[in-house]
Design brief:
Number of helices: 18
Number of strands: 16
Radius of gyration: 53 Å
């Protein structure tokens, strides 16, 4: 018997009519509704069986029935064991780990009208200040006088449009940015997104629930196997759906712990009665069409919990009063729907989205049947509000959603079959065997098969008697040999295995080069091109998941307006081990926020390029070691650019300072050298003057001495002449005396010669 069809109850009714029974009818319409065939609606939970099979295949759990046409062809099992050889999981894990290693590059922007006006006014003021700076420069050059203005302390960028587009941040945007960093650290959002991406690659679906938990915005990954949604909406994203429901299986204690504030005593009693069941036979009185209660010896009793959300309609009525100050903008005040207009008074009504929720426990207890609290509405558009679920169904608009596992399923099965046949071939392999006719046993000489095998092993001889009784020597045929060694088919199977690996890489976009399988004969350029092409092939998966991340971050920021409306102070740890203090101001609620998510793959490649450039700058001396380390520790391209730019500017400034210092030192040395030369010149001049003076004095002295000597010489010459005359006279007298003495000696000396 088919399931009973339910239609949604009317939504455009008053709040007083939206009671418990109305919520139950909506919940039944969601969980049991079966649309017509043209809508593509399924009676079962959104292809759950396929999603479960995909996860089993990813985890390596084989369904033996899928391989029976290979393993049990003749009803006799082959000597080989069917096993899963990972082909899909390695590629999915690589993509998940790649994305997990990339930073969450996000930028918060306030996007409401007032924020846009503030930013435009700030841009205009910067343009004016830039013009004033140009006028000041011309004034200074012309008159040599420095003109001062009030905004001189604010630096003006060269490209104002680029600065406003990428760098400018309001204080409230920086606070929200810090708030997201706090939530990422506090609730481990990186791990949550890793699990979500794995869901996306395995099932083609990724879902998150964003709500307030313990006073903070919170994000929880939702298992795609537990969610149903409005499939009539032609969109890949869950935010466009009109309703969504989540199914969970919890123990009785878990249910009571989670919903204790909403459960009544009689409800708890019912749940405890269910918890006391200890066999499947005891469930007969509780099971419905969907089997709300499950029992197993390992897990005990678990209850089926279905939580649904749907978009209802709410009439908003307000009275309009005249504005004496501005006739174009009348005053509007919200009133009750049953408000009756007074004389000369006008009322208007609009219809807005209104999110309602309900939870059904074990098909017997209903809780939280109410308008969903903490509905976030835009400052500029209060008519719309999103569901608390965000997600994406890959290629849902084409009606043929496919996951990466779906694309590789058949290839994985063939891969397992090839490995199965390789094992089967190895099991059949043996040495060379001989076909031995047992009729040739020489039984007439007392030899049996064991003896024959002994002689074959020891002597290498097989004795036979062809002429034994009944024998015919002419019919004897030589023994034949059969080759059971490993055949060449193994190599063919190995080639087929390699072909399947290549095919899987082409289908998934994950090339062997991207996995690190690089041949020694491959050129570096070819490897790089292969990796780039592989990244382009898988870019679609990351792009859609980034869009979902963007939705999650936007809802987290907008939930901050509700739960942090009175401010928030907290500390959190940064990714590099640092510490930062969060200080949220109450005016956070006055803005709407949009999130920019960078292209993680492209940004990651660019970030690596920036890091390589920083290493080159370090080697060339244009970047300090500390700044190079800071660039390596950055988690986003924008942060790396800022750190590198600041490091280069700082190093340039330091180099300029060093150059100035060197120039100053050189100038001082030159001045010192000039002073030294000056002093030396002065000393030499003084010495020269001294020498000149000494020389002058010496010259004067010599002149005087010369004059004296001249006079003395004249007197001396006269004296010499006089003395000469006297000497000559003395010499003459001396000679005469000598002659006279000689004469006397000759007279007195006797003559000895005869």
């Amino acid at each position: 018997m088919g399931l009973k069809k339910y239609s949604f109850p009317r939504q455009s009714i008053s709040d007083s009519e939206k009671d418990l029974e109305w919520c139950k009818e909506n919940l039944k319409a969601i969980t049991k509704y079966v649309g017509n065939s043209s809508s593509g609606q399924e009676s079962k939970l959104s292809g759950r069986e396929k999603d479960i099979a995909n996860y089993n295949l990813y985890n390596g759990h084989l369904n033996a029935a899928d391989y029976e046409y290979i393993t049990d062809q003749y009803g006799i099992p082959y000597p080989a064991q069917l096993a899963n050889f990972p082909l899909i999981s390695t590629k999915i894990d690589l993509l998940v780990n790649e994305d997990g290693e990339r930073p969450l590059d996000k930028k918060v922007k306030s996007i409401n009208k007032k924020a846009a006006i503030r930013k435009e006014n700030f841009k205009v003021s910067m343009v004016v200040n830039k013009l004033l700076a140009e006028v000041k420069h011309e004034f200074k050059e012309k008159f040599g006088v420095e003109a001062e203005t009030e905004n001189d302390k604010f630096p003006i960028p060269d490209d104002i449009d680029e600065y406003m587009r990428y760098e400018y941040k309001e204080l409230i945007e920086e606070v929200c940015q810090d708030g997201l960093d706090y939530l990422i650290d506090r609730h481990r959002l990186k791990d949550t997104f890793r699990d979500g991406l794995r869901d996306f690659l395995v099932t083609g679906k990724v879902f998150y629930k964003v709500y307030i938990k313990n006073g903070d915005p919170f994000t929880r990954r939702v298992d795609p196997r537990t969610l149903i949604w409005d499939k009539t909406v032609q969109s890949d994203y869950l935010e466009d759906a009109q309703w969504v429901a989540e199914e969970r299986w919890l123990t009785v204690n878990e249910v009571i712990d989670e919903y204790r504030d909403d459960l009544k005593s009689k409800d708890i009693q019912k749940l405890e009665e269910l918890g006391a069941i200890n066999s499947n036979e005891g469930l007969s009185n509780f099971n419905s069409e969907f089997e709300w209660v499950d029992y197993s010896e390992n897990k005990g009793v678990r209850l089926r919990i279905v939580t649904a959300e749907w978009k209802s309609i709410k009439e908003l009525k307000y009275k309009v009063s005249e504005n004496k100050h501005d006739s174009r903008t009348p005053f509007k005040k919200i009133v009750k729907n049953d408000y009756k207009s007074r004389k000369n008074e006008k009322t208007e009504s609009i219809f807005i989205d209104d999110i309602w929720e309900a939870t059904e426990i074990a098909g017997q207890v209903w809780v939280q049947c109410r308008r969903r609290p903490n509905q976030v509405r835009s400052v500029d558009d209060a008519g719309s509000t999103p569901l608390s679920y965000a997600g994406c169904i890959h290629n849902h608009t084409t009606g043929n959603s496919k996951s990466l596992v779906d694309l590789l399923r058949h290839t994985q099965m063939l891969y397992n079959i090839v490995h199965y046949h390789i094992e089967l071939t190895l099991a059949r392999a043996g040495g060379k065997a001989v076909i031995y006719d047992v009729a040739q046993l020489p039984t007439n000489i007392g030899m049996d098969m064991q003896t024959v095998m002994y002689h074959l092993k020891t002597d290498g001889v097989i004795p036979i008697n062809s002429m034994q009784e009944g024998g015919d020597a002419t019919k004897f045929n030589q023994f034949q040999q059969v080759d059971f060694t490993l055949s060449s088919s193994v190599q063919q199977l190995i080639n087929l295995k390699l072909m399947l690996e290549q095919t899987a890489g082409q289908i998934s976009g994950v090339s062997p080069q991207r996995e690190g399988a690089i041949s020694q004969y491959e050129y570096v350029g070819n490897v790089q091109r292969s990796v780039v092409q592989s990244s382009l092939s898988t870019k679609g998966w990351f792009h859609q998941h980034n869009e979902v991340k963007k939705m999650v971050f936007e809802r987290l920021c907008n939930l901050m307006k509700l739960c942090w409306s009175k401010g928030k102070k907290a500390g959190y740890v940064l990714g590099d081990g640092g510490f930062k203090f969060l200080n949220v101001l109450p005016d956070i609620a006055l803005n709407d926020y949009g999130i920019f998510i960078g292209d993680s793959g492209k940004d990651d490649a660019m970030r690596k390029m920036v890091q390589e450039m920083s290493a080159q700058a370090l080697q060339s001396g244009n970047l300090s070691l500390l700044d190079a380390i800071k660039v390596l520790k950055t988690e986003s391209l924008s942060e790396a650019e800022v750190v590198l730019e600041r490091g280069l500017d700082g190093m340039k400034e330091m180099q300029q300072q060093m150059q100035e210092q060197q120039q100053q030192q050189q100038q001082m040395m030159q001045e010192q050298e000039a002073q030294k030369l000056k002093i030396e010149a002065q000393q030499k001049t003084a010495e020269l003057l001294n020498k000149v003076q000494v020389a002058q004095i010496g010259a004067d002295s010599r002149i005087e001495v010369a004059e004296i000597q001249t006079e003395q010489k004249h007197s001396s010459d006269l004296l010499k002449e006089e003395n000469k005359v006297r000497l000559e006279a003395a010499k003459a007298d001396f000679q005469d005396q000598m002659n006279e003495n000689e004469s006397h000696r000759n007279i007195n000396q006797p003559n000895t010669k005869k």
